[in-house]
Design goal:
Number of strands: 4
Strand content: over 45%
Bound molecules: zinc ion
Shape: elongated
Strand order of the largest sheet: 1-2-3-4
Largest sheet: 4 strands, antiparallel
Number of domains: 1
Helix content: 10-25%
Length: about 80
């Protein structure tokens, strides 16, 4: 009982959405805001319900290296 309670408490801390950047590479094009370089980031996203992993997927995001804005692209909208 004691161990189970501790596990539940530990699990509760990780409830929610987690995102981790697993890769980054230079992308073609330039930032529409400042003209800086653009990188594409492979992001591993997972949604955790207490200690159960309920969702995991990889998606690609684009960001500007100069102003750090996230750049919205057509594929990004589809993937989200
Ligand atoms: Zn920029």
């Amino acid at each position: 009982m004691g161990a189970a309670t501790r596990a539940a408490r530990a699990g509760a801390k990780v409830c929610g959405k987690e995102e981790k950047v697993v890769g980054m590479q230079k992308a073609s094009g330039s930032c529409p805001y400042c003209g800086g370089g653009v990188v594409s980031m492979d992001v591993e996203a997972k949604w955790v319900l207490c200690f159960l992993l309920i969702y995991l997927k990889n998606k690609r995001r684009f960001a500007c290296t100069a102003c750090a804005r996230c750049l919205i692209t057509y594929p990004a909208i589809v993937q989200d």
